[in-house]
Amino acid sequence: MAPPPPKNLVLAASSADAGVAAWDLRTGAEDIRLRPCASRPRALASVGDRFLAAAQAPPPGGNSGTIHFYHWDKPQVAVKSFPAEPIHVLIADPEGTYLIGGGGKGNIYLWEVASGELLYTWHAHYRTVRCLALYDYLLVSGSEDGSIRVWDLITMLDEQSRLEVNTSYLYSFSQHALPVTDIACFLGGIVVSSSEDRTCKVLALDPRSHIFYAGGRDGKIYVTAMGVDVSSHSSDDSSILGALDDHSKAVTSLAASSDGLLLVSGSEDGPVTNVLIVTPKRINLPPLQSLRKVCSAHGEAEVRAVILPRPENDVPVAGNSSSIFLERCLDVLQKHGGSSRPFESGLSTLYSAPNQGAEWRSRYLELQDLFVHEVFDQMPSRGA
Amino acid sequence: MAGAGGFLADLNDPWLKPRLLKALVAERLPQPGGSELPPAEVASILNAVRTHGLLSESLPGHPPDPKLADAWRAAVNAWVERLGALVESDSGYCRWLGTCFLGITFQECCNERFAESYSTWFERILSNLQGPSSLQLVTAISCTSMSDLFVRKQYNLLFDQIGKVVNLKKEASSFAGRVVEPVLLLINENASVVDEAIDLLMTVIKLYPSSVNRHYSKVESSIAGMVLSTKVNGKSSEKFARALASLPSVRVSEDSWSLMIRKILIAINSLLDDAFIGLEEEKKGHEIMMLLVPPGTDRPPTLGHQLRSGGNVHAMKKFRQCTVPTISALIHCCGVMLTSYYPVQVNVPVRALIALIRRVLLVNGSMHKKMFPSTTSLHQELICFELPSVHSTFLDLLIATIKGMRSHLLPHAASIIRLMSEYFKVAKLPTVRTKVYSIAQLLLISLGVGTSLHLLEAVVSNSIADLNDGSENDMTMSSTHPSKVTTESASKSYSKKRKHDPQMQNSVYSASEKTTMSPRKKKGPSTPNASKEIASESIADGRMLTPLSVRIAALETLEILLNVGGSFRTDHWRSEVDLLLINVARSAFVIGGGCEQRSSKVGEPSISDLQLASLKALLASYLSSPHARPSYLAQGMGLLRKGNYVDMSTNFFTFVCSGKLEIGTKLAEFCSHALLALDVLTHPRALSLERAAPSGPGLNYGAAEAAVFGAGRYKLSSSGDLPQAMEVEDMYDDWLASKDDEPIEAQLNGDAVGINTAAMGSNHDRQLTPIPEDPKIDPPKITDADRDVQASSKSDAKMVDAATGETVPLNMMDNPSSSDAVSTPVYTSNSDPQNHVISSSPEQKPTYGISHLENKSLAVDASLSKLATSNENSAAPGVASSTHEAPRGSTTFAELFGSDSGVESDSEDSMPEIQDGDPDSD
Fold first, then answer.
1. Quick one: how far is CA A228 from the chain centroid?
2. Which of the listed residues A154, B153, B281, B625 has the most CB atoms within 10 Å of its CB?
3. What does the UniProt entry say about where the protein is found (chain B) (predicted)?
């Protein structure tokens, strides 16, 4: 069953063990259903559109985390991995090179997808990491303790850089009084965060006109204008342009289609914890590696860095070379005044005629070298 | 309708083709053993065949005319037969000619014919290839046409029916397999045709990899042997490197790729061991080997049996002639492997790769402490002679690594960035430096804003050093110079002197530009002593020579830096960079005006490339500005308009001279694009009230908006309304206290760009005061300006000429806005119905207006003046200091206004003025 390539799937997952359901965005027809999966909000990530990763909510009383990988065309779990602690949030970078997970104890884990290697893990927050977002390779994390921190992954991944900086995070914001529930990054370094204290805050200062959608606990989706006035956000609702009122319970997750025309929302009335719009890509996938539990000892082995096959880099074979060759020959012949000399003395005249001087020169230099060398060799021996 | 004989219908009559071909074969193609054709004749046959598609046999009409089809087929048959006869003849020339035309036939003939004759042709060429041909030309063309044969075969396979493909593929593959051995023989033994032979081999590897599988090790050893030996010259050794790089695709697996790249890296490493003796720590080579061959694993077999040629040649000669070319060929091979497509995911020994690059780039030619007896000063000299090219090849490798690995490089990004920051200090030569810049660009693009935080310092400081090379007409570059005070005072006295004859404006000389330039002029090359004084460091002389290519690379890097991370940590660097960019753009256009006629060499960047790069960077600086109103927007807009316009005027000229037209239109194209992009910033709709009001404190009561939006009409009528005025007043205080624009302006006025302010002050002073023009005072002013020009040296004078010619439009453009600026505040604040009087009474009104203005916004001015270091007379009471204060008041306000809203007001009407005022236009 090979579906046409430009297919957009809407994925929905729930914290109840109902698997991940998929529908076609255009037709609404149900596609594949991946099971089993029971994920918390923001724990579902599409890895470069190549496959799906979902951190599993641990069974009550369970103390270990589980992450499932799914292929787009197989309904069962492809690979299971067991990180050191339950992962609450999971995101992947746009290229699908890295998976980043936030744990219940405030740790952040950074895996390389291709090798499954745990590249680095660090203690980021005092309490559970509730949400993660990437802006290029700046990681923004929000926690239950109300703080939001920005991490530069380049620094985090390099031991020497880590030692050089004072604080491992780039910025730290602690304006939220209650747990941060979600973060979104926009171009130009704007970060919008939402929190249980019923505020949305614009963190970085680059106010350009934007509209963003915020899902509320009351089941409404607020359409909010950005850049009106930073200070008024908390006090009144002047910036809220409108509200979509369809859900009966709290909105947990929002996703917009790539053309910006459709908004998909998931709500507890489903109950849905995650919605995601993906365009599955089927490429020659290497076997998936399960994620490691601990970092490999430093310097022990070559870090496995990989190059993925990229067909667009293929270099085409140049054709048409006979005519090029002929034209080149004709040029040379023309210079020789149309005589057939090249055909008597062979190709060498064709190519090396201009080089002959250089050749002689190099021979001469070689000889000179040799003699000078000899003289130098003899001198000390004479002295001795 | 024409038939086999008689007249043709027209040029497109299909009967023309068989007839032409028949004539060609009968009359022009030689018989086997016949005499040679003159080259022109051969070329004309080639042309005829290709232009008319004589061999294509594509018949028009449904169904095609059978008679035509027969005739054409017969003609092509005759052609092919004749070629066959030629190929098999004894004469070398005939064989050569026949093979050439056969190769062309492969490209031109129709599918059916190719499928029919494919195997016959193959055998014919193969026998030519294998035969003990005395003529190397024949062997060479045989290789080439054989490669054409395979390419065409592959092309045909794509369009054949599915069912047959498997068989045909097998057949083609077995044919390809038969070629490999003779080609290897040629490569190993026949030095003069290696070029063509390696081309053929590459085609085979690429199209029929399975056919090479059997010969894998043989192929590898002979290619590697050629790469490692010095038998081939640069161009073909690159070809060999590419062939070596494509070899792993014969046996597609992760291991074969990794093995190959490790082998190559080991070979490079051991070559470097020999070369760098005494110039680095001993252990380095060993460390890299440990990375490549981790303890406990087997060392891969050496590449191509590692035959070391030239063993008896002198060591130094060996280095130059053997080691360096070999290293660069191997590096090239690595680069191709990293960047080209490979069907499976592969492992890159990235740490070894980076360590190797680091190893080479850190060798700067200095002797290491521990001397070796074998190292001589001659050896060092030789190494230093070759180091730039070696560095350059390794930078290429780094570029390939970044391109190939993309986001997978993230864990190693920090070490690469460190290396680059270090290497920036070493890289002085233009070629190397441009490469370092391009690496910085690549890193910024591929890894995004995080990189910009790390690269910021290195890029900014280096590009400032590269770009700030004492061009004559910077608005200021003194932010780093200690001579700031003198420059300031110079400009001060200058502006004072000017004040006595304020009608400068209307002269053909661009007052504003001259004033901004003049402080610099005085210090610049015009008076050598002064220039020595300002550029006391000897670097300045070297900087003057920063080549265009480096400056363009620096500009491009800044552009990308601004695009990627323009709004990050802006407080440290943005003001400096923004100022630098506007200066560079200005100077580029001034220089450009001066040497437009001087033709530049082909392939080298010209001044218009610099202009383009500077404008691009400028646009990036505007668009990425963290503030609502980018600084220097007005000046930049002027340049962009001018770029648009100058181009149109010079285009004609360049068209006549031909050659530079394209780059010219590129510049014009970019300018119009940039103006469109900036529309977001300059269009009135972008001016929300709360943002615009504080931006022009000189405009009391937000008069600009009032005028523009019409809301002000209302305000105007009720301008006596005190509460409203107070309210606005409050707004200013508010702004002063809280808005983020404020510290920026302060900084602009203050320490970083002190001279700029001074220059701008006098500049705007001149722009403002002359509005009430007085024709009597006009003449002396011109002479004054003239004298100024005379005062400078000759070359300088030329420059000024160019400058004035160029800058008039700029000035003209600024002018209307500032005149507006003067009249509007007076208009509103006085609510004087007779405000037009201003323009008639030169001495009093403007100063009154301004000082009045000053009065109203005293709070603003006071606080601003505190911040402005260049205004020593700021303590003077506003009203009393009518002459002294006026320029300053207008400075702040006009500056703000000019850089902010001034641009919008003159978008349309300024264009005609430019055309009138530009003396260059004729």
1. 32
2. A154
3. Nucleus
Question: Look-up: residue for tokens 């939402």?
Answer: A194
Of residues A21 and B836, the one with the higher pLDDT is A21
Q: How far is Cα B622 from Cα B639, in angstroms, rounded to an integer?
A: 13
**Which sign, positive or negative, has the C-alpha torsion B736, B737, B741, B746?**
positive
Residues of B in contact with A137 (CB under 8 A): 410, 447-451
Write out pLDDT tens, residues A147-188: 888 899 988 888 888 888 888 888 888 877 778 877 777 665
Cβ contact A286–B344 (<8 Å)? yes
The answer to whether the Cβ–Cβ distance between B454 and A154 falls below 8 Å is: yes
The verdict on a CB contact (< 8 Å) between B148 and A327 is: no
Separation of alpha carbons B442 and B447, rounded Å: 8
Residue of B nearest to A159 (CA): B414
Domains of chain A by range and CATH?
9-307 (2.130.10.10)
> What was the pLDDT predicted at A294?
73
Express each pLDDT in B562-616 by its tens digit: 988 877 777 778 888 888 888 888 888 776 655 444 455 566 777 888 888 888 8
Please name the residues in contact with B196: beta carbons below 8 A apart, sequence gap of 6 or more: A325, B139, B140, B141, B143, B144
Please state the pTM of the whole predicted model. 0.71
Nearest alpha carbon to residue B584 among B542, B623, B551, B629: B551
Closest to B770 (Cα-Cα) out of B699, B849, B842, B826: B842
pLDDT at B656: 32
The one-letter amino acid code at A302 reads E
Residue found by looking up tokens 């890895």 in the block: A47
CA distance B746 to B759: 16
Find the DSSP H helices in B190-233.
194-207, 209-212, 216-228
The pLDDT confidence band at residue B292, using thresholds 50, 70 and 90, is: confident
**CB distance A313–B406 less than 8 Å?**
no
* A308 → closest Cβ in B316, B345, B447: B345
Q: Do A338 and B107 touch (CB under 8 A)?
A: no
B837 or B672: which leads in pLDDT: B672
Q: How far is A160 from chain B (nearest CA, A)?
A: 8
Distance CA A372, CA B316 (A): 12
Give the three-class secondary structure for A277. Answer: strand
Q: Which tokens sit at B327?
A: 């290293």
**Which two three-digit tokens encode residue B243?**
């062939």
